[in-house]
Amino acid sequence: MMSNREDFYNLYNSIMNSDDKVRFVTILDNQGDVLFGGQREGIQNYLSEEDQKKSIKHVTDAWFSRNQFSSGIGGGKYAMAEYGKVKRFTFPLNDSHIIYITTEPEVESSQFIENVLRIRESL
């Protein structure tokens, strides 16, 4: 199980380098605390720092509350939301951590999802 800073860095780096349309990658715990992450150099932030924190809290709450139904329908593999300026992806890392990623809206979603799943499984 991934749990140390080096593992998180390797995951972050692999995802960030998988597609130049990746804007932001972070690993969160089930409380919404950022354990590791960052954004691509030179990109424009669309949200204030306060709104970024609110967004991360929302993503975390949504993911872990959604999984209360996993005993009936199975565990979540990923969640995706598309907005005008970004796509947002959430993947489970383990029972208590998630990977939160934003990309440019032009990213090819199905290929990107497959790449992230492959990266996650390889580390």
Automatic annotation (TrEMBL):
Source species, domain of life: Archaea
Descriptive protein name: Uncharacterized protein
Organism of this sequence: Candidatus Nitrosomaritimum aestuariumsis
